[in-house]
Amino acid sequence: MNLFNRLLGRSESRSGTVAKKRLQLVLVQDRVDLSPGRMDQLKDDLIQVISKYVEIDKEGIDIALTNTKRQSRLTAHIPVIGARQK
Amino acid sequence: MSATVITITSGKGGVGKTTATANLSAALAAQGKKVVAIDADIGLRNLDVVMGLENRIVYDLVNVVEGTCRLRQAMIKDKRLDGLYLIPAAQTRDKTAITPGDMIELTNQMRDEFDFILIDSPAGIEQGFKNAVAPADRVLIVTTPEVSAVRDADRIIGLIEAEEKGPGDLIVNRLRMDMVKRGDMLHTDDVIDVLAINLIGVVPDDESIIISTNQGRPVVMQNGSTAGQAFKNIAMRLTGQDVPLINFEESDSFITRLSKLFKVSG
Lengths: 86, 266
Ligand SMILES: Nc1ncnc2c1ncn2[C@@H]1O[C@H](COP(=O)(O)OP(=O)(O)OP(=O)(O)O)[C@@H](O)[C@H]1O
Ligand SMILES: [Mg+2]
Description:
Chain A is an alpha+beta fold. Chain A is built from 3 helices and 4 strands; from the N terminus they run αααββββ.
């Protein structure tokens, strides 16, 4: 992307850039064979399991699949509010 | 001699496997190597017309495998280039006419006689692909810089790794630098970044490919085209030579335009 386009803030919206972003997302799903729907189920299951032990902020949960080289990584950021009321 | 078996494959169809097989085979032969190109796209035979050898077919790959003819009878010698041979695909059969084991046996019979055995794979992930990849020592994956082709290439790379033939090397074909420059085509670096695989060459979109296919004369057999030079460079890399990648991005800067006057660079 040349400087002119960058200065105009165009690079983000060019179709080449859009293509790369879309590819990165779709390949993460392809590689682990996990559709966005299954991802949501995974998230729900995870919440259930963890809630058995600690109280968590369900709204603040962030679960993501990322790629480094040809390896996929599942990361979860789960804000803990406090101890589970027994 | 002990041949290196190289399979040229892709996920998506029509991205340039046959064009690459024809040109790399011819370029390797032009380097003095003894090369046989095998068309493994049974039922959709094409390598013969791209190489311009379609009028000389008597027997094909399936005939050899089924024992209707001897291996040598199915090998067509290219009279234009010393050391270049083609084994055509059968046109009226389908992929199930041969097995991966047949391909391994067939190539093993030729390993002593050749430096390179190039196999043109059909598109897709089914039996034809498995047949083509089974005997491979190296796999080249062809893609165009488009979302669908790159996605399918990723799937193929996964399968090649699963077959322990991987990771393979990537050829980015039909790059249009004018579009990359204005940001409307994936950059080669982006493709490599998402696929995380070694790049062995970049071939520009070039009308000389279509002209040469019309004529049945691979571009590497004629001088002056950038696509031809790109294929020659890949062939040199396959023989272990260290050839820098063509930087198409700068290919029309003043300096390179000047240097191009003296030599087709890249
Ligand atoms: N670098 C290029 N520049 C211009 N045209 C090209 C280039 N590479 C391939 N083509 C054209 O694209 C078309 C498809 O090429 P080719 O037959 O080699 O693809 P393929 O991957 O073998 O297809 P299939 O999956 O059907 O076997 C052909 O018409 C060919 O001439
Ligand atoms: Mg083909």
